[in-house]
Every structure is written in structure tokens, then in C-alpha cells.
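Two proteins were folded this term; both appear here.
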Amino acid sequence: MKNWFRDGVMRSILRNAGYLASTKLIGGLVGLLALVCAGRGMSAENFGTVMLIHTYTLGVAAFTKFQSWQMIVRYAAPAMTQGDTATVSRAIRFACGLDAGSGLFGMLLAIAGLVFFGTHFGIASDIVPLAICYCTLIPTMSSSTPAGILRVMDRFDLLSLQQIATPLLRAIGCSLCWLCGLSMPFFLLSWYIADMGGDIILWAMSITELHRRRMTSSLRPSLIAAPRSLPSAWNFVWSTNLTTSLDSCKEPASNIILGSMLGPAAVGLYRIATSILSSAVKPALLMEKGFYPEIMRLDPTSVRPWVLGVRSGLLAAGTGLAMVLGIWVLARPVTALFGEKYHVAATLLMIMAPSIILSMGGFPIPSLLFMVGRPRALFWSHVVGTSVWFAVLIWLTHHYGIYGAAGAYIVAPALLVLCALIPTLQSFFNRRTLSPPTQRDLEEETNEVEAVTNTGS
């Protein structure tokens, strides 16, 4: 393995992941403190209601937003290496326009869903107005332009600092609510302030970086002029939106299903377990954030990006195995911090823990498929995996309650990795038929992504 780390790209991936991981651990611990304070300061039902409102808002934001950061990396990363600031500026302007439009649409959609179906989601009728107010977060939640700007400009140090902001603000707010004996609406308000504050800080960092490079004009939104000079830009953002929307809506959808079938208290238990697991999977997500920009600069016809993918996946899977063992040992002491009324969360956590290995080990696959211009294959992998997972989740929850939902949690990453691995292996064995990224046949990629867009519509 010593030879692995002699590769400059591998070292760059790990360095960028290290920047993010250095503060993500702190953010995870501080976020856990916020959950503990909220769990102890509210009843199980009220805690579950807060989690249900938060995950519902996150789900709608994830479902409606465009992955503008991926579009920025796709077009601006190669341009930055060539000093083409005009293309970088056009990509950012297009991303700003996408975020503005999708954020407004997502907010209106979420409010409409609560007005007509809020009580069917497990939210009490007197709490629905609070949930509607919480949906005003969606325009900032669905904006990933500032993250894309900082990634392209290699400011992972700023991204790592920003990761502390939201959990720290949330922990401060929940601690004050708990110590002062405040009611559930104040806990929800602390969640709102923390999310808004974290998003504002992220935007401030990206604007400062653009100002330093004299590129603040890039923040003018453009949905018509800017994408005209970016080959297949609209098709790319539609395909990535369809794919990531399916992936991002899994956790919020599972919370809504549990809320409607088992009630808010079950959502609270499930949320405790998934929050701890999400923190454990962060290293893979952090590696992906550094892996994707680096892999897009490499030649897909060579062995190098594929070897990097295998090595990165093995490193992440090994880390995941260690985390699973740690969770099995510490599950009960950690969940005991929330109080005796949440003791079931320890069992759920132990059942769901093996999913970490699958999620972390398979993180390079989407980036490799994007590298070879096969978003359609990734999209269909998500369609198949998500459809089967929804059916399994409902069936197991109906027959085995909250423990069935925990068992279904392992099915989602297993199906996704299996379905996406097949086209990835095909692309590897046929890599010599591909063109280098600087001469790639954009017309062929356009036709393929258009097929994804039409099918998804």
C-alpha cells in the first residue's frame, strides 16, 4: 500500500478529504450534542415531530434542487487549469440561476404538500403552520453553488471550517432550549437558525473568494446566455438532478413512511440511528468531494483513474469496517445519552451498521461513470435500486415495525452498488474505445443524456 500514496492524485484526494475530515469529526460530535439536548428536552413524540419536519424539508429541497456544484466542477475544473476564467464565470452564473429557480419551486411545492397532506405525514394539524414556516429554508438548503465554487478553487480549507458552523449553532440553540425548559417550537426555531446561519456563512466564504479573484460578476444568475457556451450543460444538469434526487430522497421518504405507518415517536428513534450512521459515512463523502474533481482531470482510456477508484474504495471500505465494529461496541452507551425512552435506538443502530461498509466502499462508482460520460447508467441504477428498496421498506415495516425499517436500511446501498457496478465494469473493459476528455465526443454524450432526461420526465 506504500506505492498507493506515491501517486500525486491519490495524495491530493486524501489531502482534500483530510481538510474536511479535520472539522467534520468536531462537527459530528457537536451535532450529536444537539440531538442529545433535543432528545432530553422534549418528549419522544415532539422530538420525532421536529425530526420529521426537518427531514421533510430536506427531502423536498434535495428532490427539487439541481446539483449545481457538479455542473460547476464538470465545466469549471478543466477551465481553471487552462486559465479560462470566462468559462468558469459562465458555469457559476448558470449554477446561480439553477439554484434560484429550483429553490423557489421547492419551497412552494413543500408548502403545498403540507397544506394538503401534512397530517397524513404524521404531523399534527396544529403543528402544520410551523412546518410551513420551516419550509422557507429550502431556497438556501437547495443551493450548492457556493460549495462548487470553493471546490473548483481548491479551497477545501474553507469548506472544512464551514462544516462546524451549522452543528455548533444548533448545539448552542438546543442547549439553551433544554436548560431553560422551552417547548418544542423553540427547538424547531434553533434548528431553523442553525441551518440558515450555516448557509449564509458558506455563501459569504464563496463570495469572498470570488472577490479575491475579481470574479464577483459571476454571481449574476443566467439560465439562457451562460449555458449556450457550455456544451450539453442543460442535459448534464437534468441527468445529475434526476439521479441525485432519487438518492437524496431516500432518508426523508423513509421518515415520512415511518411517520405515516408508525407515528412520530418511531421517526425520532430512526432519526437518532440514521444521524449517527450518517456521521460515520462522512469520510467516504469527504473523499468523494475530493475524488470527483481530480478524476475529471484524468484520461479515462488509461488504467490510472480506475486504479485510483479501486484503491480509494478499498481504503474507504476498510475504514467502514472499523467503524461498524466501533458502533457495535459503543451503540448502547451512545444512545443512552438520549435517555431511557430511546433505548430501542441502540438495537436499530446495530442492525443498520453494516450498511456503512457498502456505502463507503462504493463511493468512487458515480464519479467513474460521470468521467466516462455514462450518467444514464447511473440513473437507471438508482431507479432500480430505489424502487426495490421502497417496496422492501414498506413490506418490512408493515410486518416487523421499526426493526423491519432498520433491516431495509441495508438494502438501499447494497442494491445501488450492485446495479452501478455492472456498467462501471463494462466501461473499464471497454475503456480503450473512449476518447480522451479533451477530445470527447460531446454529441454522443448529449444524445445519451437527452435519453435520460426524456425517460425521467
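Next, the second protein.
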Amino acid sequence: MDDMSQLPDQPGNRRAEARFIILAVAAGILTGTVGSFFHLVIDKLLRWPEVLAHHLDGAVLVAAAAVITMCITLASVYIVRRYAPEAGGSGVQEIEGAMSNLRTVHWRRVLPVKFLTGIAALSSGLVLGREGPTIHIGASLSAAITGFFKVSDVERRGLLGAGAAAGLACAFNAPLAAVLFIIEETHSQFPYTFRTYMGVIAAAFFSTVMTEVIGGTAPDFSMSVPAPALALLPAFVLLGCVLGAVGVSLNAALMAVSGFVIRMHKHVPFLMPALIGLAVGAMFILFPRAVTGGENVIVMMAREHLALSALLGLAVLRYISMVASYSTGTPGGIFAPMLALAICIGLAFGTSLEGLLPAGTAVPLAFGIAAMGGLFSASVRAPIVGVALTLELTGAYTMTMPLIATCLTANLIAQWLGGHPIYEQLLERTLAQAGVHPERMPKKRSGTGIA
């Protein structure tokens, strides 16, 4: 901890702590407000295929949608590459780099580029999540605050973490998971002191307050399932094994395909984003559940009972479309698409068990919910966040024990298979591209997020 945090009874220390908390609260309020309107605009714009369908149909409709998504993708990629290259992708790795003093948050250019191109990319149908942009927006707003008020280096880094937590809390209406994300995922970079820790909690809380005032109070993916019997816990462990392997594969695919697109851009600029945009736009009409961030897909999947073949087919499509969309380089996160992919896998797993166990023993939705936390844990390697995020999102607190079993197993399997956390890999590549010497890179962490 810093020296001031060791002296809680000194008036000057109390004033400094109060000042920092006020700045964190301001970051939370700003992030919750900006992030909520960011989400509302995307929700409205995502209806454009319905409007287009009123005027066109058949092959013409598919072609028009493909061209629209392609144009939006190309415009977003161009603006990002031209004005704020660090605004591409999720942004989480940029914040981790900034908290390690290896990257700089250029908030004056990141904020407008991330906000506008993020809206464009996410409403175009690309399979990207809203949480990445809101995390980056929250940290950028914190960086703006530190630019107007004199703060120490520890306080600056602490406010970046507070802004990131506020962004995640806003994206999923999940303040506890947001605080745990900073503790577990950014543990190597975040400066832990009494005031910075309280600042993260305050920012996440007030961001969630603003989110609920503007967008509503219910969990984003409200679901209800009876508590699975303890005898089923081995099945959730087996599901965790499957998800551990899928998570390692997904991370490898994200890194390999995005790296390929970066290399291709040097030879044929914008070719891959154009092709991916065309494909996603066509799928927006032909297979709408295979595209977009997946928030609506998760809700629909929870309510319907699809055949095993349909669930597996949708999982394959969403895996491919997620990897391809992220590789374009537009702003967008991976959490929401990962959760949508996971529920497909979990429902397929649960559906297959229905044919092997006595009637009523296995509830496919229970496995779908558990898979959401499990795949997150395998990819991001933050199992406690995976449990908390899934519980806050779904409100299915009867799933606590199965979630712990699934997330623990998925994290262990991913570690044993030699996988690395996705944001660690993204940060290493970002720093390597910026010419940062390997010794200055943050130390590799174990699969639990603890050094």
C-alpha cells in the first residue's frame, strides 16, 4: 500500500482519500451515463435489418445487408487505423498496459473513436460485445479526470482501474463481477491501496446506479432453474473439461486469425475486413442468431428447446463468426459473444445428457448457465469473475455450486493444456508491435490470475 493509506487517522490523509473517492464516483457516474446511452443507441440501430426487409426481399435483401455491413466495417476499421489504433478490439489489454505504465490512454482521441465506431461496428451485426468498448470508455473517462486534477501515479492507475470496473458494471449491470474483475484479472497491474480499492467499489456502484436509472434494474439475462442435485456435480465437472479445451482453442483461434488479418493488411489493405463484413451482413438475414453480440440470442436460447443438431450447428457458426469479427480490428469485446457461444455448448451438453439420464434428472438450461461461466474462466482465466458474472447476469443463484465446479474445472484444464489468458496474449502482442522490450512486459501469470 502507499504511505498515505497506512495513516488513516491523519486529517490530510482523510481529505486525500475523500478526494480520490469523489473522483472515482465521478468516473462511475460518467461511465454509467455514457455507457448506457451507448447501449441504447446500439439497441435501436440493430433493428435496421427489419426496416430493410420492409423494402426488399429474397436475394436482393441478403446482398443489400451484406454490402451495408461491409461498408460499416470498412469505415470503422479505417477510422480506427487512421485516428486511434489503440481503440480497436476490446481495449482491456490497453488498460492493463496503461496501469503498468507501458501504454498511454490517449483519451481525447480514444473516447470519440471508441464511442462512434463502437456503435457502428456493434450495430452492423459483427459478433462483438459491448463490454470491451465500455471498459475502455470508462478508463478513458478516468484518464480525462486525471488530466484535469493533479493525482499521484498510484492514484492515476487506481482511477484507470475504477473506470474499467465502471465500464464492466455498466455493460452487464454487474457491479460485484466488475470489482472482482479488477481484483482477479488486473491483479498484476492494479496498485492496491485502501483508497484505490474503495475507488473501484465506488465507481462500479455508481456506474450501476446510472445504468439502472437509464436502462432498468433486472439482470440482463434473467433465468430461473431449480437447484441441480448434488449427484449431477460430476456432469458439471465433465462440462468444465469440455469448456477448458474449447477456451484454449478459442484463444488460439482469436490470436491466429487476428494476426493473419494484420499481416494481410500489409499486402492487401482492408480486404479481410471487407470479406468478413460481407459474410456477416448476409448471415444477419439468413442466420440472425449466428451474428451480433449475442445478448438477444442468449435470452432466446434460454426460452426455447432446440434439437441437439441445431445447437451444435449454431455453436460452430458463432465460434467462426466471433473469431472472424474480432479479427477485423473494429472496437468490440469478446465477453458477450463468448457467453452466447457458451450457452449453445452448455445446452447441447445438457440435451445430450437428457437421453442418458432418467427423465427430469438433467435440465439443459442448468448446463447452459454453467457453461457461460466455464468458458469465460477458460478463456479469460478468472474463475471467480466467471461465477459472479454469471450469477449476476442470470439471477440464477441456485446454480452457485454447479458454477463453481464448472469454472474451477475449466480453469484447471485450460492451465494444464498450456493455454494463457486471452488478455495477457493480446497485451504481449500489442507491446511487441509497439517495440516494448520483453523485460518490460508484465510477468506471466498462472491460470488462476495469481502470480
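The longest helix spans residues 11-45. The chain has a mean pLDDT of 91. These notes refer to the second protein only.
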